């Protein structure tokens, strides 16, 4: 029996993970669940999945959870905040940590799981974007096992021998749907609403990653994620737009062979693969329906329409500090856009200003994880100042 702690249990990845785990009650047991704002949902999930531990953000949320909990059922232990998440990541009873918190808020607990040598199922790509080399070094030093949940990285993992990049691999090709704005007139992009931007053509996801998909920064974050996860030079990673989201990514070998992983756009597939690895387990997804697959289309990415993708490649080529600034400024800008405080096109403008201005003032290397947290906090506060001054 594998004890699973799910950080970000109330989100979209949390839902899909719990759906798969529920089907395999003989194999997995839910050890811990965390929430941030949706405490009522955490309570409902806890009544179904019976975790031993829940993690809530603060004492007010703890109070709400206690008040709502039915008195006739024994209550899970309640832990609080980032410390509660990190303690659970280190908890000897937790075998596997599903890192599915959105944003750099997920980095401390994912990092703690790496330090504790856990099996980590990583959805939180921002952890690798902000702290790639430190994170992977910690995984290696502590014999942790890192398995990708992000569908592209999961596909690449499946197409590489034992999930590892080697000299026989020519390049990794990350596919991208192009999001909801692949074809609209670029002049109309400044007027799109958060609701339009959140409507992804193929995937159903949380709001932040949906906006990242619409700007295509998501693909940029994934290029950085792939670089660190597979230890491959950025020059060997390409992006290919594939609007049907059927091929989840490809590996090209030196002999010219291309291996790809195909499937429905359903996160339960990569989640099942990672949960069961090295076995394959059932995922609850429907069999692939070839009668619906009329065509597979491919295009090269349009860097003019999607400047965020170019900014991510630039940051990766430049420095780890630039990657921290890219990620932090994006999180703040996306939050402002979701609150209707800035336009969709301001997201890229903001990131570019932060990379051109603030990032150049950063001194010294990021040698310790605390350096990453500090720079992330500074970049966030500068981005907010910039946006408050101009909007
Ligand atoms: P959601 O917004 O649906 O869920 C986010 C989760 O994180 C929720 O449980 C939320 O709690 C929690 N959370 C939010 N802010 C904080 C915080 N400050 N501290 C602690 N917990 C917090 O996002 P997704 O599930 O879509 O995405 C999660 C991660 O997985 C992201 O990094 C995303 O990039 C990645 N990912 C997602 C995919 C998808 O298909 N959804 C695909 C590939 C990667 P609450 O809801 O209670 O507020
Ligand atoms: Mg992805």
TrEMBL record:
EC code(s) of this entry: 1.1.1.267
Query: What name goes with this protein?
Result: 1-deoxy-D-xylulose 5-phosphate reductoisomerase
Q: Where does 1-deoxy-D-xylulose 5-phosphate bind?
A: 125, 151-152, 177, 200, 213, 218-219, 222
Query: Keyword Thylakoid, does the record have it?
Result: no
Known pathway: Isoprenoid biosynthesis; isopentenyl diphosphate biosynthesis via DXP pathway; isopentenyl diphosphate from 1-deoxy-D-xylulose 5-phosphate: step 1/6
The Swiss-Prot or TrEMBL record annotates one GO molecular function as: 1-deoxy-D-xylulose-5-phosphate reductoisomerase activity
Q: Which domain of life is it from?
A: Bacteria
Q: Domain named DXP reductoisomerase C-terminal: which ranges?
A: 262-381
User: Where is NADPH annotated to bind?
Assistant: 10-13, 124, 126, 206
Q: Which reaction does it catalyse?
A: 2-C-methyl-D-erythritol 4-phosphate + NADP(+) = 1-deoxy-D-xylulose 5-phosphate + NADPH + H(+)
Name all 1-deoxy-D-xylulose 5-phosphate reductoisomerase C-terminal domain ranges: 146-230
Q: Which cofactor does it need?
A: Mg(2+); Mn(2+)
Its family remark reads:
Belongs to the DXR family.
For the ligand (Mn(2+)), the binding residues are 150, 152, 222
């Amino acid at each position: 029996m594998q004890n699973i702690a799910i950080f970000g249990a109330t989100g979209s990845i949390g839902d899909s993970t719990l759906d798969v785990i529920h089907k395999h009650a003989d194999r997995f047991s839910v050890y811990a669940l965390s929430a941030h704002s949706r405490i009522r949902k955490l309570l409902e999930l806890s009544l179904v999945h019976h975790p031993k531990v829940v993690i809530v953000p603060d004492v007010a949320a703890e109070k709400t959870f206690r008040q709502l909990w039915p008195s006739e059922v024994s209550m899970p232990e309640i832990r609080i905040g980032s410390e509660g998440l990190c303690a659970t990541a280190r908890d000897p009873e937790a075998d596997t940590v599903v890192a599915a918190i959105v944003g750099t808020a997920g980095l401390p607990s994912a990092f703690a799981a790496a330090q504790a040598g856990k099996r980590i199922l990583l959805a939180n790509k921002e952890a690798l974007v902000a702290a790639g080399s430190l994170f992977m070094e910690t995984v290696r030093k502590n014999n942790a096992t890192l398995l990708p949940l992000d569908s592209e990285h999961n596909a690449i993992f499946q197409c590489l021998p034992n999930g590892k990049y080697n000299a026989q691999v020519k390049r990794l090709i990350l596919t991208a749907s192009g999001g909801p704005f692949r074809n609209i007139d670029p002049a109309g992009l400044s007027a799109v609403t958060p609701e339009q931007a959140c409507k992804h053509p193929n995937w159903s996801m949380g709001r932040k990653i949906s906006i990242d998909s619409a700007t295509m920064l998501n693909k940029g974050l994934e290029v950085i994620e792939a670089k660190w996860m597979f230890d491959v030079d950025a020059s060997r990673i390409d992006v290919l737009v594939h609007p049907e989201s059927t091929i989840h990514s490809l590996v090209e070998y030196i002999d010219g062979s291309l291996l790809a992983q195909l499937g429905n756009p359903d996160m339960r597939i990569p989640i099942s693969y990672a949960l069961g690895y090295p076995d394959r387990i059932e995922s609850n997804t429907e069999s692939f329906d070839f009668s619906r697959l009329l065509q597979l289309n491919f295009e090269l990415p349009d860097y003019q329409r999607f400047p965020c993708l170019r900014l991510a490649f630039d940051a990766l080529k430049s420095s780890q500090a630039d990657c921290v600034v890219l990620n932090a400024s994006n999180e703040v800008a996306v939050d402002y856009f979701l609150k209707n405080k800035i336009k969709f096109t301001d997201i890229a403008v903001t990131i570019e200003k932060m990379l051109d201005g603030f990032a150049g003032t950063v001194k010294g290397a990021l040698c310790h994880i605390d350096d990453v947290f500090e720079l992330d906090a500074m970049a966030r506060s500068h981005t907010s100042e910039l946006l408050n001054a101009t909007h």
